[in-house]
From TrEMBL:
Belongs to the ABC transporter superfamily. It comes from the Bacteria. The keyword Cell membrane does not apply. Signal peptide: none annotated. SMART domains: AAA. Pfam families: ABC_tran (PF00005). Residues 22-254 form the ABC transporter domain. Transmembrane segments: none annotated. Keywords: ATP-binding, Nucleotide-binding, Transport. This is Multidrug ABC transporter ATP-binding protein.
């Protein structure tokens, strides 16, 4: 597939309809003697998206990624990556894809830096003259520069995960496929990886990442697909997924803490907030669904806060509870987000 006609400043142009970097049809995997690990999966990942592949433990995420990367053969169905059919086109396509799959294969007796030098040397397209520089940059990007000289067997799980990610970042890629990239990281490490994913996406890389953490996907992804027991439950933009539960649940509830509850109720009512309740210095209400008081513009939470402040209401606390992807999941499956049986 030719690259899309989006370069430099034209990057903001939305992807062409049908411009998908990953597309599967009826993709199915049955392991020997087991139930279906992936069951007739139709996945469509638009170019330029940060796509969250979400599902509880055992729902088939890694199995899907292994098929996408040509590491295992599907039992049925097909998978296209960057327009080419896998696993057949692997040699041609995989150099344009950076991948981090469960437990990166590292040499424990080599330092982090030497592991990356080896990975880079295994890439026939990588210029040896710029190898050290490339490796240095990748270590820098994942926050491993200081620990680069340490043997990989002495790395913590989070450090190994970072090193695996660095190996996926040695070359600029069109597509990054990351299986649970924040697995084993502490909260600070998770934030760093999320920031990195956003940065890569801003540079135009499509990022496909699996996760069993709903809030992580909510924070970093533009699109998501939700899996349960090998089946696709829903896919679309994160906003659309949230909207599927809005119909039944409203947009969420707002709570304002103020010494002026009566004024707050009046202002919030004008702003379209319904079901207003007052308990001492707390006013809570149901947020308007889609449009602001004029019925046109989409509203923002900050508008409500501004309206309160503008009317002289002393706002001491302001918080909203929106339906989360977890709500979406429970709403669609009727199950909690637990390990698949
Ligand atoms: N090599 C294998 N042989 C047999 N069954 C397997 C194999 N790998 C995975 N499975 C089974 O396939 C199903 C899906 O597993 P998979 O690893 O794809 O899930 P996952 O969504 O990646 O889970 P996690 O969040 O725990 O990584 C599970 O029921 C698992 O037990
Ligand atoms: Mg997995």
């Amino acid at each position: 597939m030719p690259p899309p006609p989006t370069a430099g400043s034209e990057r903001a142009v939305p992807p062409r309809a049908g411009d998908r970097v990953i597309e599967t049809q009826g993709l199915t995997k049955a392991y020997r003697g087991g139930q279906l690990a992936v069951d007739r999966l139709d996945l469509a990942v638009p170019r330029g998206s940060v796509f969250g592949f979400l599902g509880p433990n055992g729902s088939g995420k890694t199995t899907t990624i292994r098929m996408l990367m040509g590491l295992i053969e599907p039992t049925a169905g097909s998978a296209r990556v960057l327009g080419a059919t896998m696993p057949g086109a692997g040699r041609r396509v995989l150099p344009r894809v950076g991948a981090l799959i469960e437990g990166p294969a590292l040499y424990g007796f080599l330092s982090g830096r030497d592991n990356l030098l080896r990975f880079d040397a295994a890439d026939p397209t990588a210029d040896p003259r710029t190898r050290a520089e490339r490796v240095g940059r990748a270590l820098e990007r994942v926050g491993l520069a200081a620990a680069a000289g340490k043997k990989a067997r002495a790395y913590s799980l989070g450090m190994k995960q970072r090193l695996g990610l660095a190996s996926a970042l040695l070359q600029p890629r069109e597509l990054l496929v990351l299986d649970e990239p924040t697995n084993g990281l502490d909260p600070q490490g998770m934030r760093e990886i999320r920031a990195l994913v956003r940065e890569l996406a801003a540079d135009g890389t499509t990022v496909f990442l699996s996760s069993h953490l709903l809030d992580e996907v909510e924070q970093v992804c533009t699109h998501a697909a939700v899996m349960a027991r090998g089946r696709l439950i829903i896919q679309g933009t994160v906003a659309d997924l949230s909207a599927t539960v809005l119909g039944s649940r409203g947009s969420g509830r707002l709570t304002v803490t103020t010494p002026d509850p009566a004024d707050a109720v009046r202002v919030l009512k004008e702003q379209g907030v319904t079901d207003l309740r007052v308990t001492d210095d707390r006013v809570s209400g149901e947020l308007p669904t889609t449009a602001g008081p004029d019925g046109q513009e989409p509203w923002e939470l900050s508008d409500l806060n501004a309206a309160l402040v503008h009317a002289g209401v002393r706002v001491r606390g302001f918080g909203a509870e929106r339906p989360s992807l977890e709500d979406v999941f429970v709403h669609l499956t009727g199950e909690g987000f637990d390990v698949a049986g």
